[in-house]
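Hey, I'm writing a tutorial for new members on how sequence and structure tokens pair up, and I'd like a real worked example in the thread rather than a made-up one. If someone can provide the structure for the chain below, I'll link this post from the tutorial.
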Amino acid sequence: MKPLLKQVTTSPNNSFKIKLFDEQEFKAEWHFHPQYELTYMIQSTGIRYVGDSMHQFERGDLVLVGKNLPHSWKTIDAKNEKVKCVVIQWDDSLFSNWFDKPEFTSIKKMLLKSSYGISFDKKTALSLENSFSSIYNQNPFKRFITFLNILNVLATSASIELLAGPSFGKDLSLKESTRVNVINNYIKDNYENEPSLTDISNKLSLSKEAFCRFFKKTFDKTYSSYVSEYRIAIASKMFVETDLSVSQIAYESGFNNLSFFYRQFKKHKQLSPKIYRQLYQRI
């Protein structure tokens, strides 16, 4: 359950690492590493955590995680499909002698922003899918050129969203990081019922008051707000992936009050459940 410092190694013929992930589900817990990481989702849906942010992911999700920024992807078994994604990781030293060159100004600025994590717009991400799909089988030189082109497109053409909030404590201790891992796993396992404040406080050997202080300091929101946000992410997936009614989805995502569900959904998505479903059905 403890967050791991992942060791990222490259082969002798490559200066950066590319992995084609093809598994039934993501297994990595909330973790960090001193390398940058660019992840493109070819298939699967679920919830991703980057710093104190929590968003659903689907095909076309493209995220850049900066150095030592804690993150994890969690598969939610709605369609029971395997995970397929491309993960590119590289050290700061890869471009250390190039960043002063004017051609790299945009990429340098983007990598500086990645300390918060960056999500790229889906249109740009999908336009790069062929590059992500082919890069693994290219020879080392062609692979490096493809990688540079991907970074250039993202740095100069994509719309971005910064993920972790400005108050996120990037210097969390190992003990504090472990707490975040326990919290995220607990909510994932209990969102359909009522994730108990007493329960999770006891799991972390904290009083309710101490837990609430830690949570607010770390996530800049209350525990109940975070649980509600997670449930709305689950409900959003159900609207896209199933034909269940609004009331069924509200119940299965952990809401027992339909009017409260409507209010929370509109708060987080700025759309009613009906309009949200209609928009995604047109895609």
